[in-house]
Amino acid sequence: MRLENVTCKKVEEYLTKSQIVVIPVGSIENHGKHMPLGTDTLIPNKIIQLLEEKSGVMVAPTVPYGATNTIMGCPGTITIGTDGLVMLLTKITDSLFRYGFRKFVILNGHGGNNKAIETVGMQLHRRGAWLANLNWWLMAGELRPEWKGGHGGAEETAGVMGVDPSLIDYDYINEPMDLIDDVAPNMKTTGWGSVDFKGATVVFPREMHNYSGNGWYGKDEPHLATVEWGQEMLRTFADYMADFLEEYEKLDLPKAEI
Fold first, then answer.
1. Cβ(238)–Cβ(50) under 8 Å?
2. CB 34 within 8 A of CB 151
3. What does each of the 258 residues of the chain score in pLDDT, given as a tens digit?
């Protein structure tokens, strides 16, 4: 049930039966030369579409912008920062809380959003409400270990293929990860802002374009993705989410502290 498609009366009726609302949150950011900037928004939207075949849960409009400061510098990437996302999610959940929603679900598509989501979840918990954060790509890798992947790697590439294969730029799908040792010759870049020095990890916060010549990162090479993988993965996660919502409905609310 899409919040934007129903009347106030329908929301009132829904709240007599359930206090759950799902808020998909994504981002607009680089995922490699082969992937669309909206990857982290497109995939949660598709999961919601599949979920609606099994659940009548209330779904708020998707928040398409996230905290993507580390990926700025790659053309088209947009960030509202952690502070901006905290403000936006606080305003959204405050509004919904006023009418009686007490069980919030964030269907998250971007790891950089987690600090903001945690902050808002803690605020809600003190007020006697739950927030459950579902990081779909991490959970999919737990549900099926062979699906586990990195940023813009085969897992997310398969996810976009499961949305629409034409969104992939196949001219670039075979390009290597292309990490750049930009800090020092003896400090090998190993991942998100991190380098290896004498066997230990040191983090140098900086934008990704400084150390990645492509934009994807992980052990799962994008060319390994298939449409079938993506379709099965998104369907499996939507089914899991439907099961989770059934159990979530049964939870007692936490005691309000304020």
1. yes
2. no
3. 999 999 999 999 999 999 999 999 999 999 999 999 999 999 999 999 999 999 999 999 999 999 999 999 899 999 999 999 999 999 999 999 999 999 999 999 999 999 999 999 999 999 999 999 999 999 999 999 999 999 999 999 999 999 999 999 999 999 998 999 999 999 999 988 999 999 999 999 999 999 999 999 899 999 999 999 999 999 999 999 999 999 999 999 999 997
Task: Fill in the amino acid letter for 147.
Answer: W
Task: Count Cβ atoms within 10 A of the Cβ of residue 205 and give its class: 0-12 exposed, 13-18 middle, 19 or more buried.
Answer: exposed
Residue 169 is which amino acid? Answer: D
Give the dihedral sign, CA 215/221/223/229. Answer: negative
- Please state the pTM of the whole predicted model: 0.95
Handedness of CA 213, 215, 216, 221 (dihedral sign): negative
